[in-house]
């Protein structure tokens, strides 16, 4: 009974489904081949042809190859029924390339249809004819397009514009000028619909033929609001590229106005920026705009990031300012003014792509004080579909990196909803940590507290990382953050077995790392936190978190009064737990013990030494070869230290002393200062695909070079304006470059005075003279004094020092004699380079004979730091007429193992 | 520009492919895509732009159907995404929704629409009212006709007059015997209540939806009594920017039929109509939950279809929840939904019960977020009021109608 009822309901629902599907094409999709298709195609009834074509389309939709019906289908192109025609066209476009010979049969019908009085028929014929991609018919198709480009019906002209890229895609060189000419005609069309399609054709055919735009520039700007949304997107980009190519960037814009702000502190724009900052938020001036980053962004827009980043050194992002002749100003340039005026209402467009494109123009071209009007429209886009939300956020993120103050007052927009996708959440967190200011941080932190309890643990871990970033940016909040994070660490570590819950480990590891990031800024005032972390070590079970804390033991082992006293106990504990640790923790334990050993005071030393020896023995027979390797490495290095700690006062053989140096460098080095974020990021034009996938997609072009498009018949007025402007700016830029120079040199001075307390610059120069003296003996035996001070300095500023040091430091005179200084004998082979000429390789060769020339050679002398190192001599030669400033030689690897020597000969 | 569009069913089957340019895209890309989304899970599914080894993929998901577009060259990604959204909108408008069956049953219409909407990878005609004239939507009459006569073309023979005019969104001369125009304010309330019960964010996202059935070439102006409360807005292309910039008046020639005139946002609202008070205490592996829902400030109209849904955390092994009003359902994926409906006068709806945690856990350390749903007819909670709607030339018989409604948008209450 029950069964029956069930079956009835089933049949009922089936029946209702059948009823619903009556009259649709469902049966054709389900069983396209249940009848023989070929005879239907030859039928004399339109309805049967139609059915046959539908069956073929169904097969195409399902991925079958039905090109063998091509001849029969082509015949039907002559049909009068619009539906049959449409279906035949759909089929033809699918297979024309595969069956070129049969496709040619259809050309006559297209030709005939092109003369049809019905515009729809003409348009369809044109679309299909241009779409079948046969080189043979390209001339015919081109003729058809050029005829349709003058068609009375707008729709046909629009299709003509769309057909142009299809012809261009065939890559027939002889047709290129004709195609570009038609693009010009269509761009000049009075109907907005056609102009939009023509802009698309322009972008894909000849994006750099600015002559076509110049002719119609004003008209294109006026027509822009009426163009269909899709055309607007591309037309905005085209107009922007034209204005940049013709007039260059705008001086008052964000891209340029911050140039030289740091070197020329009193320029008027600085005042402007300060105003802006004042009326925005209380955030510090450095918060309002990241000058370096803005420079990088603007350079990337013009040159493309790959080119730019490969050319410039990452540490020195402030390269030369744009040539002042290549800039313009809104006040004086009519074209720029019109562009900004016609794009700003598009910020209200319903289409998010249009809004983003318009915002991009304002971002690049608008005066600094107007840029903020893009903020609200951009943020409103975040309420659109989840897909576009993500893309918009990626772009906002770039804007906010360069100008955090723009978005700082709107931080609430980045609060996270539970329905956001994970990527959106991650981006919003990054935004929040970027735009947080002292006034908004308290509410942001309260939000973060909520996020930490979110069931998505990956998101919670990201939140904790964001807290770390916030605390590092804002100096006032670390204490509150640290307390919260510590509580979290305790709670997480007591929460039971973390492995039972997914992602819980990540949260704990991230919490420890965030604490580390915060402490790193100012370790001295946070020693209590460090101690607490050390104490909780035993309860933390996650290997990565343990490793981080153990690493911190090594780094901060000499900090404050309490930590050094804990060390013996700590190392004992580490030695005790060594056996049961994961291998990453074991590696850290080994490193840390070595570090502790080096910084240890005499009274602990014996104990620590015993622990070290014990651990080396354990490590040597570990299962993991990484650990055995590390142990062996330490075993080779450390004996000198183990043996000679008390005996540093005695003179020891230099060989061992070198080992001590190495040990100091490897394990005694301090943390490098925190590098500013984001300078290595890649920036592409706003709204581009490349910005989302973070590599240059094929066909991506940066903005054209400023003023690369020169139009001969200069407009008299604007030209004189430009010259006047240029003159004014030239003066200013010279000024700024001079001040920049001074800044640079003073900077250098201060550095070297810090670095070389014991050898002044003069001394070194004298030394270098000595060394180059051919009469100097080849082998020198000399006394060298090494002060503890010097060692420390060397470790900190190792690279600077080595760069400044001369080949034979043997006769260095210590200027600051320290109490616990030690001297030792040194045998060095003198400057063999003066006798045996080493082979020179060129590193950088100016092709045209002027510019910087860099050669390098491997010297035969032995390094003073370690016999394992090799000396390299790098010669810089300035073969141009002008002085080259800020030559910077840097080492990409960590500073552990490379010694470089540099003789800087600057022959001007 | 786009090279190909694929429609994938929720099981990963390619239902339809439409090649747009001569550079054909093999459908093996869909297999790659599906493999990736199976192996990487939700975070891949929600990634709208994907760089595959051969192509850049753009995807949107609508009702389980994945719309996938491929390109090999640089193009604005938002353009692709917006276009796919438009395709999905048009299809669901034509077919009355999108799902696997509807698309397969009407695949010819889908092909014809796609062919009209995009040409050589660049959008051609996307205005719904024009498309309706070019390709007739399937309706009962045409279905019957095709059954009876076996022949009913849905492709129009003539070009819609609007396709080339300067108001491309409007057919040139629609005729109506009775002229009607309806304006709906449809608002969604987005709010975040944090774990302390504090209202962190409360704002209204609203749309002005219109249905215009007017003869000829009407020129309308719509003005608000309090336009200053509008924080952000976006307009349909028909709205002229100048009058809005100068005195906040919407002046436009409307499309025919239903359309979205503008969307707006009103921020910093002080109050929500409904409150949710969740409480949770955990002890020795079990948690006691109680959630109260009530009316905080009476909007003057009935609050309908109140629902509360939340995702139970992973560490909950079983849940026993009951309510004194409405029904509670817990799905197998641990989604719990409490359907309340209207709040009764005599009692406060309360959901209570216990959650059992997985063994080894003492307390709950992650907490769910409640999503509230409700609907209020007849009121716009933002307080936006329409002042008047004028026609430049009054047709003989004109009926104007105004309505408003508010529902919950992204209304999160954190526990």
TrEMBL record, chain A:
The keyword Magnesium does not apply. It holds the Pfam family Adaptin_N. Residues 714-725 have a biased composition (Basic and acidic residues). It comes from the Eukaryota. It is found in: Endomembrane system. Residues 714-790 are annotated as: Disordered. Residues 738-750 have a biased composition (Acidic residues). Residues 795-901 form the AP-3 complex subunit beta C-terminal domain. InterPro entries: AP3_beta (IPR026740), AP3B_C (IPR029390), AP_beta (IPR026739), ARM-like (IPR011989), ARM-type_fold (IPR016024), Clathrin/coatomer_adapt-like_N (IPR002553). Keywords: Membrane, Protein transport, Transport. Belongs to the adaptor complexes large subunit family. This is AP-3 complex subunit beta. It comes from Camelina sativa (False flax). The gene is LOC104791836.
Automatic annotation (TrEMBL), chain B:
SUPFAM superfamilies: Second domain of Mu2 adaptin subunit (ap50) of ap2 adaptor (SSF49447), SNARE-like (SSF64356). InterPro entries: Adaptor_comp_med_subunit (IPR050431), AP2_Mu_C_sf (IPR036168), Clathrin_mu (IPR001392), Clathrin_mu_CS (IPR018240), Longin-like_dom_sf (IPR011012), MHD (IPR028565). It is found in: Endomembrane system; Golgi apparatus. Keywords: Golgi apparatus, Membrane, Protein transport, Transport. It holds the Pfam family Adap_comp_sub. Transmembrane segments: none annotated. Residues 178-414 form the MHD domain. PANTHER family: AP COMPLEX SUBUNIT MU (PTHR10529). Belongs to the adaptor complexes medium subunit family. This is AP-3 complex subunit mu isoform X1.
